[in-house]
Amino acid sequence: MSEEGVEMPVDLVGRARAGDRDAFDALVEPHRAELQAHCYRMLGSLQDAEDAVQESLLRAWLALAGFEGRSSVRTWLYRIATNQCLNQLRSARRRRAPDQPAPAARPTGEDAVRWLQPYPDELLAELPDQAPGPESRYESRESISLAFVRALQLLPPAQRAALLLRDVLGYPAAEAAYLLDVSVDSLNGALKRARAAVAGSAPPRPGDPDPELLERFVVAFTADSVGDLVALMSDDIWVRMPPLPFEYHGAAAAREFFAAVAPHRRTIERMVPVGANRQPGWGEYVRDRVAGGLHLVGVVVIHARGARIDEITHFDSTTAERLGLPRTLD
User: Fold this and answer.
1) pTM score of the predicted model
2) Smallest Cα–Cα separation from 83: which of 180, 219, 183, 204?
3) Rg (the chain; Cα; Å)
4) Is 265 left (phi over 0), alpha (psi -120 to 50) or beta?
5) Strand, coil or helix: what is 155?
6) C-alpha 158: how far from chain center
7) Cα 246 vs. chain centroid, distance in angstroms?
């Protein structure tokens, strides 16, 4: 029996070891969606997460002869995927940062997380209906929020992995240490530092936003009504726009930013709802001056706390395709 309490698929393992690729796919495909979500939490980028999963499954195929069944296939795959992500983080292979335009208004700080991308709700719907381990601290919705994933990116890789294995996936300390090939003392030390760092970074657990709040946001955002937009924000609002490094903290800074960009921004004629990280988002469409139709210029995702918005994250249009947003509208 595996630690999940189900019989190991001995026949599939044997056939896969004998070179049956269909058997191998049957072993690993049930875990692909959750492995990709795990790699996304580790790396903050859907593109990098997809690459990590592909490389992890290749490594699993090549290492199958060494799989002895002492853990479940799922745990074995998590070990491979986590270490693949750690290798990618250590290699520091990142895409070239875009040229930085002058900020529209003076930012309150520089966002240290440049490569954060949204994660489509459609992919989250593919996650297996499997409760996290008994020692997990985060609910599934909270652990995929943009704020939480962003907070993870500020941690050193080893702390990031320790927090995810223990507090998101709920692995016991001894098993998490095994997955990372470290001592339990080393794991607990990394986990303690990670918990302290993340404690003040992510907002409270999200609830379902008030539909009226979302409607008012869309109206104010498309009308460039700065006063109405700021009225929907909390006093400690964060406005970010990865991969640009500028960030604005507080209602006064947000007001200054939106007031500065309003005269130069093309009119948003349509906002198409989209789900990302289990948060409300929209694709932004403006009128094409030549063709006359509407084309996508960006994606905005918000986080609401109570009756106020406390995070606005703007992404460029390169993230749109994976969110299912069309480039153009009639």
Assistant:
1) 0.91
2) 180
3) 22
4) beta
5) coil
6) 18
7) 19
Compute, in degrees rounded to 10, the torsion defined by CA atoms 88, 140, 279, 308: -120
Burial class (CB in 10 A: 0-12, 13-18, 19+), 274: buried
Residue 130: other Cβ atoms inside 10 A: 12
Cα–Cα distance for residue pair 171/190, rounded to 1 Å: 15
161 touches 86 (CB < 8 A): yes
Question: Left, alpha or beta for 323 (phi > 0: left; psi -120 to 50: alpha)?
Answer: alpha
Q: What is the rounded CA–CA span in Å between residue 109 and residue 52?
A: 31
Six-digit token string for 177: 């240490």
Determine the Cα–Cα distance for residues 184 and 280; give it in Å rounded to an integer. Answer: 39
Report d(CA 77, CA 84) in Å as an integer: 10
Helix (H, G, I), strand (E, B) or coil at 288: coil
Q: Are 57 and 51 in contact (CB under 8 A)?
A: no
Tokens representing 323? Answer: 């969110």
Residue in the structure block whose two tokens are 């955002």: 221
Cα three-residue angle 10-28-52, rounded to 5 degrees: 145
Residue 10 neighbours by CB distance under 10 Å: 9
Q: What is the pLDDT of residues 286-324, one digit of tens each?
A: 998 777 899 999 999 999 988 899 999 999 999 998 999
Collapsing DSSP states into helix, strand and coil, what is residue 189? helix
Distance (Å, whole) CA 310 – CA 306:
9
* CA dist., res. 12 & res. 35, Å (int): 20
DSSP reduced 3-state for 122: helix
Phi, psi of 213 (to 5 degrees): -65, -45
Whether 213 and 232 have beta carbons less than 8 Å apart is answered as yes
- pLDDT tens-digit profile of 12-33? 888 888 889 999 999 999 999 9
Q: Are 315 and 242 in contact (CB under 8 A)?
A: yes
